[in-house]
Amino acid sequence: MIYDFAIIGAGIAGASLAAELVAHGSVVLLEAEDQPGYHSTGRSAALWHETLGGPLIQPLTTASFAVLNDGGFLSARGSLSVAEPQNIGLLDRLAEEFSGTVALQRMTHDDIRRRIPRARAVLVAGLLEPSCADIDVAGLHASVLSRFRRGGGAVQMGFRVDAISRKSGNWEIRADTRTAKGKILIDAAGAWADVVAILAGARPLGLQPCRRTLAQVRVNGDDVPANLPMVTDVAGSFYFKPEGPDKLWICPQDETPVDPGDAAPEDIDVAIAIDRLETVTDWKVLAVERKWAGLRTFALDRLPIYGFDPAVPGFFWCAGQGGVGIQTSPAAARLAAALLVGTAPEIDPRHYSPQRFASDAKRD
Q1: What is the C-alpha separation between 127 and 291, in angstroms, rounded?
Q2: What is the secondary structure of 186-197 as a DSSP string?
Q3: Potential cystine with 320: which of 170, 215, 305, 310 (Cβ 3.0-4.6 Å)?
């Protein structure tokens, strides 16, 4: 069978796009692992966070709210960006960037203390984003995969692509002895997107996988508020969020460049996260209960890539979501589907087009 659309990668990006496309033709979803979303989607502490990623990501995030909220995948959390004295200017810049688009509230140290009972005096100012919400990532991912299957979509797991060719206008994708064929090939392979592109004869776009570390820690006392917001350093050196009366998820906001693969946490990154938590709060870490790492893959300009490759017919990019792939997935899938089937997208796609890298090719 020759499918209308063959999608490589069943993480949240590929699965959401598959669920949108299944009404427009036959779709096969090809996943290298034995379970979808193993490397990034399944390891995320994702929030719906309108300011995350910057002003060019915000339209995708905002447009995704209705689907996430109406589907019951969001629960109120709030986000608090905090600053030490030397970083107050970064708070000012954040407030200016989203003036008129996202509701933000300026916070003093006393305001911060009312939300973070153990905040140290070093946290002198903040910006509260009340609308920020936790995302039920597993529920969302399962929902789009279920919608895809109900629509007649096919999923092939353990399909580790090792060769791609184009014959008579159709793509042939091989994984050892297995073969899938499609009229349009969609590269939603996450950290492996450039690898897939090379196999398909497309120029790689410089996508860089980066390791992101998380740990669940137990702290002294039982005064971690259940309604503690997601607390993020405006300078990008830590975040933490509650996981129980004496537990936190902590992250050093690391972005360590790595090759595509099964990311594992490094002890030094966990130690850095602990040190930063104990520098800005009076909580002391008593035990590391678990730790893990995932991959965030960025394009050179840190914006996602959605669109047909300018040089390879029938090859479509759906890659480079970085840390915003889950919160933007409903709107990003609609945008990519519109581009694939030739309808008008609801969001201007020019910022995300692979065409923006064409000038780089001329300099190669």
Answers
A1: 28
A2: EE--GGGHHHHH
A3: 305
